Amino acid sequence: MDSEDILRWLTGFLSLAWAVLHIAAGYNAATLASKAIGESSLVFAIYSEYFGFNAALYIFAGYEIISGTRKLLIPFTILFMWNTALLIESHIAPAPILGKTLPIIPLVFPVLALDFLLVGSTILTWWKSSVRV
To answer: Which residues cross the membrane (predicted)?
Structure first.
């Protein structure tokens, strides 16, 4: 197993870990968001669907990265960067749909660290698969 395979497996498992962590974090965020503005059913549904859909995308990304699909690495990188930017933005400025800044819960920091690891490892995986040294 060469370094490209190890990096690919690491990136794939980070993506799968992101999905599992965001299923739990998404439920907490949906609960907090619904309590923050008082429209519990609509906001909870929107946030739950968003996190559930993203978790499904990350499971798909993890599978594709582990299986060696190279054509989707750039779209996956864009997805990972978008979600990282959205996480940071929603904690320093009013969050989309809510219009309020999200509270920082203890799960935010591990999720942010995982986001940065995932973005970095995906970029490195793409670079290692594109550039033959």
So the answer is: 42-60, 72-92, 104-127
